[in-house]
Design goal:
CATH architecture: 2-Layer Sandwich
Distance between the termini: 65 Å
Number of strands: 5
Strand order of the largest sheet: 1-2-3-4-5
Number of helices: 1
Helix content: 40-55%
CATH topology: Pantoate--beta-alanine Ligase, Chain: A,domain 2
Structural class: alpha+beta
Number of domains: 1
Radius of gyration: 26 Å
CATH class: Alpha Beta
Length: 130
């Protein structure tokens, strides 16, 4: 094999090596981003689970307007929720604050429940990452 072929093959291997390194770096960045998004999504779902649990408790007792702080561990995370009726709210509304934590990411969901037609309904929902 001639010297020119050895130099040519060395150059090709060098270029392929650079591509491998850059693809590996891009793959690691993509994996890290996907893990972050999945963790935040799971925390948000846990937070919304707290709103659902509060709605279930309100459905069992229409006269209830508040729930003390309740903590539930589920699906590898923690849900903390409570309900209270702020002074500015009418008697038919109450506010539920639920916090979901998963892998160190915390999302807080605030929901306003409205009693109408003999049952509680979700009027508004706000979520934010804490």
């Amino acid at each position: 094999m001639g010297t020119s072929k050895v130099i040519l093959l060395s150059g090709i291997y060098l270029v392929l090596g650079f591509y491998t390194v850059s693809f590996t770096a891009a793959d690691e960045a993509n994996y890290t981003n996907a893990l972050t998004v999945a963790t935040q999504s799971q925390a948000e779902q846990l937070s919304k689970t707290g709103v659902s649990l509060a709605l279930q408790r309100f459905a069992a007792n229409l006269a209830m307007t508040s729930i003390g702080t309740t903590t539930v561990t589920t699906m590898g995370g923690t849900v903390v929720y409570s309900a209270s009726q702020p002074v500015s709210f009418p008697a038919t509304q109450t506010q539920v604050i639920s916090t979901g934590t998963y892998n160190g990411v915390t999302v807080q969901t605030t929901a306003v429940f409205h009693q109408y037609g003999g049952r509680w309904k979700v009027l508004r929902v706000y979520s934010k990452t804490v």
